[in-house]
Amino acid sequence: MEPASIVIQQLNEKDFAKFFSYLDQHLSDNGKNGTPLFQPASRSASGYPVERKAGFIQSLAISPGDPKWRRVWVALNTHDEIVGHVDLRAHHEPYTEHRALLGMGVRKDMQRQGLGKKLLEFAFAWAKQFGLIEIIDLSVMADNAPAIQLYRRAGFVRICQINDMFRIDGRSEAHIIMARSVLDRDE
């Protein structure tokens, strides 16, 4: 399916169950069957932690710029299935209102078709229109070469790598932090 037939819209309350089902399926691929780790979680973990779902939903009701805010957009195919998502959220530290953290995912069968690029462009456009966010930050597992390549092409710059950040399944895993200004590039 071409990304042109994909619709991106803000996650709404009626789609929470569908979204968490999509996330569970997406996260079940983490580090399995040739897929690099894209989350700092054990390969045996198979979904979004139940104890975090309520906080996730609550963060969607918080106004951007306030502590703990989050906005999520989902990519829907012609069958109204969620095939990808992108989210922007507040940093945990105070005095970081001008920055946002980015998270995203694309269903395995939709990867390498331009959907990731389309989701990133959507998030940048929203951040630019919103006006408060000047810099978007992200974290990526150091072995996730496809994601790093996508982020570089989208204008993200590597800030640092933290070696031995995680110990997952008995293995040391590095973590890369990247950032991109919302203001210095036109899409």
Give an account of the 3D structure.
- The chain is an alpha+beta fold and 187 residues long.
- Helix content is 25%, strand content 30%.
- Strands 1-2-3-4-5-7-6 form a seven-stranded mixed beta sheet, sandwiched between helices.
- It is globular, with a radius of gyration of 16 Å.
Describe the structure using short key phrases.
7-stranded mixed β-sheet, alpha+beta, 4 helices, single chain, 187 residues, 7 strands
Structural class: alpha+beta
Mean pLDDT: 92
Number of strands: 7
The helix fraction, in percent, is 25-40%
**Rg over alpha carbons:** 16 Å
Encode the helix/strand succession as letters: EHHEEEHEHEE
Question: Describe the biggest sheet?
Answer: 7 strands, mixed
Query: Ends: how far apart?
Result: 23 Å
Shape: globular
Instruction: State the strand order across the main sheet.
Output: 1-2-3-4-5-7-6
Q: Determine the strand fraction and express it as a percent band.
A: 25-35%
Question: How many helical stretches?
Answer: 4
* Unreliable stretches covering 5 or more consecutive residues: none
Short structural summary:
With 187 residues, the protein is of the alpha+beta class.
Topology:
Layout: E1 7-10, H1 16-27, H2 50-59, E2 70-76, E3 82-89, E4 99-106, H3 115-130, E5 135-141, H4 145-153, E6 157-168, E7 171-181
Parallel strand pairs: 4-5
Antiparallel strand pairs: 1-2, 2-3, 3-4, 5-7, 6-7
